Amino acid sequence: MGAITTGLNVQAIREDFPILKTLVHNKPLVYFDNAASTQKPKIVLDTEYHYYSSQYANIHRGVHYLSQIGTELYEKTRHIVKDFIGANSEREIIFTKGTTNSINLLAYSWSSAFLKPGDEILITGMEHHSNIVPWQLACQRHGATLKVVPLQEDGSINIDEVKNMISEKTRLFSFTYVSNALGTINPVKEMTAIAHQAGAHVLIDAAQAIQHIAINVQELNCDFLAFSGHKIYGPTGTGILYGKEALLDAMPPFEGGGDMIKDVKFEQTSFNELPFKFEAGTPNIAGTIALGTAIEYVEKIGLDNIFAYEEELLKYGTEQLQQINGLTIYGNSIHKSSVLSFLLDGAHPYDVGVILDHLGIAIRTGHHCTQPIMDYFCIPGTCRASIAFYNTKEEIDLLVTGIQRASKMLL
Ligand code: PMP
Fold it and tell me: Could you identify the atom of ligand 1 that is nearest to the CA of residue 236?
């Protein structure tokens, strides 16, 4: 087994994640369910603890000391996110509960402002359900049509097909940066440019990209981008919607309540300025503050280093899995990130998952909230091992041994 040649000190990084010392069924945990959610470094846990134990109060509009500290810390995360994704201003950073919530916000609010009967929304055949269903609902509400760029056998889409399917009727092209089920990395900059040429807006679902690939929204020139805190080593219930200021300004509020208003009268209410117009009610304050810590942690390691390391691990894992008899890998695009989706001939993915679990190896089985992908391949689901920068080649070897064992037991 060759040593990893990229510059991460993975053993030191692993020390930052207390959960990696857990025993599962008396075996050391091998955590390969990172596409579902990533584990949290101690510094993120400490941030939440510290906030609740010595800084906690509700934020915004409080004159007292603790409220002001909380507000500063919360708004600091907005600044961190703005710099992290290269946005123009903090007004373009909306705090949400996660990617799903960000997309639903848009599907409600953007559609109210921009979607008319007869219009079209374009998505791709590899979208997560959370980038399908909100648009189906929006199309039903507004008399619009949802169109889908078809998937290809290797798990990619054909860019010529995108050009064919976009028309002057397309109001929005919404697509994932990285497929959670197949690992495909889409050519998002090119897809954005094609959509803009046709006059459509662009939403990038970055739920599976933000933790693996350095992103600059101004360079991509996307109109909107969504991601979840829990996939980038931060807390659940936190997330981001980035939007170009002029577009966010043109959109009505999503939820009504405290914080999103300027002036409330029974007859009429005026709304707060961006980003608060879209942030009704008391948010996940501690989680959002800790999301800032998580992003700083990732930045310290460096996304380019992370990408290079994970790419090497993915290549190694792919080579090893390909040597297992009767194993098929789903998702073979040349541009791929961190996901090994596979099936063993004649074995149900669930059974493989249970056997691996007894060996302490956590993978995910099923449709991964991408049923249309499974329908395309005519399969019920896959086994998915997904990689983070704390994983190692030794863990890949344990996975391979585990799959071989499952194969012997099941076939
Ligand atoms: N899009 C993609 C590509 C995803 O992988 C996920 C999470 N699996 C989501 C959207 C939804 O994210 P969340 O559940 O955090 O809202």
Answer: 15
Phi/psi at 8 (nearest 5 deg)? -90, 140
Catalytic residue among 139, 222, 369, 378: 369
- Please compute the mean of the pLDDT values over residues 179-208 and round it to a whole number: 98
Reported as a pLDDT band with limits 50, 70 and 90, residue 5 is low
Look at residue 7 in the predicted model and tell me its pLDDT.
Answer: 78
> Which domains are delineated in the chain?
10-40+302-410 (3.90.1150.10), 45-300 (3.40.640.10)
Per-residue pLDDT of 192-201, as tens digits, reads 999 999 999 9
Q: How far is the CA of 66 from the centre of ligand 1 (A)?
A: 34
For the residues 295-319, what does the mean pLDDT come to?
98
Atom of ligand 1 nearest to the CA of 368: 8
> Is residue 362 over pLDDT 50?
yes
Atom 6 in ligand 1: residue holding the nearest Cα? 207
pLDDT in tens, 363-387: 999 999 999 999 999 999 999 999 9
Percent of the chain with pLDDT over 70: 99
Based on the residue annotation, tell me whether 369 is a catalytic residue of this protein: yes
- pLDDT tens digits for 117-130? 999 999 999 999 99
204 Cα: distance to centroid of ligand 1 (angstroms): 12
Pocket of ligand 1, beta carbon within 6 A? 98-100, 128, 130-131, 176, 180, 205, 207-208, 228, 369
